[in-house]
Amino acid sequence: QVQLVESGGGLVQPGGSLRLSCAASGSIFAINTMGWYRQAPGKQRELVAGITRGGSTNYADSVKGRFTISRDNAKNTVYLQMNSLKPEDTAVYYCNAQITTRAGLRYDYWGQGTQVTVSS
């Protein structure tokens, strides 16, 4: 089995920063693309940022220049550094990873979600 465990969410004032982490564990052979998604109340889940195993990144237009995604392949961990946070960044943030298991099967895995609230 594979698990993704997220941490780092919380309450922050506008203009503040937070760093999210997501660690994958279990029967992992390889981790391909990793990413962060978010879902605000009443809205669809959207891609925030993604990163390939080789380090290529992509971002939603709304977070470009403010958020940075990175990963540590040795630790099977992906990070999201969020700066200059705005109230509209408030959402539940989910980690996603495309993982090939030791059994040779490839699945999309999701974390449990972590709440980020930007408010004064």
Q: What's the layout of helices and strands?
A:
Layout: E1 2-7, E2 10-12, E3 18-26, E4 28-39, E5 46-51, E6 57-59, E7 67-72, E8 77-82, E9 91-101, E10 106-110, E11 114-118
Structural class computed from helices and strand pairing: mainly beta
- Give the overall shape, derived from the CA principal axes: elongated
Residue share in helices? under 10%
Based on CA atoms alone, the radius of gyration comes out at 14 Å
- Quantity of strands, as a count: 11
Count of helices? 0
Describe the structure.
- By secondary structure, the chain is an all-beta fold.
- Helix content is 0%, strand content 60%.
- It is built from no helices and 11 strands.
- The strands form 2 sheets. Strands 2, 4, 5, 6, 9, 10 and 11 form a 7-stranded mixed β-sheet that branches. Strands 1-3-8-7 form a 4-stranded antiparallel β-sheet, with no helix packed on it.
- It is elongated.
- It starts with a strand and ends with a strand.
